[in-house]
Amino acid sequence: MSYTITAQIRTELGKGSSRRLRHANKVPAVIYGPGKEAISISFDHKDIINIQANEDFYTSVLTLAIDGKDTKVRVQDMQRHAFKTLIEHIDFKFA
In the chain, how many domains are there? Predict the structure, then answer.
């Protein structure tokens, strides 16, 4: 199964910026990999909460539509809230 998530590049970085994104129901994320520069992105929480419940989400190649350009990635790590059903941050790796 293929997944496509619409994301935006974020220019503000840091703890305060990430908190503001989470308060606005967005998920901060980063894409990194060998030989490429890391890209900080964000996307809507509602876009990811349902598809991350599928088991193949963690093993398949995902497509991130970042400002009109498709990027193939894999999920490397995901941080969740301690007791709420919220995703706090996702690390992606270039596929």
Answer: 1
pLDDT by 10s per residue, the chain, length 95: 688 889 999 988 889 888 988 899 999 999 999 989 999 999 999 888 888 888 888 889 999 999 888 999 999 999 999 998 889 999 999 98
What CATH number should be reported for the domain holding residue 54? 2.40.240.10
Q: In the chain, what is the straight-line distance between the N-terminal and C-terminal CA atoms, in Å?
A: 16
pTM score: 0.85
Give me the domain span that covers residue 89: 4-94
The Cα–Cα gap between 42 and 22 comes to 10
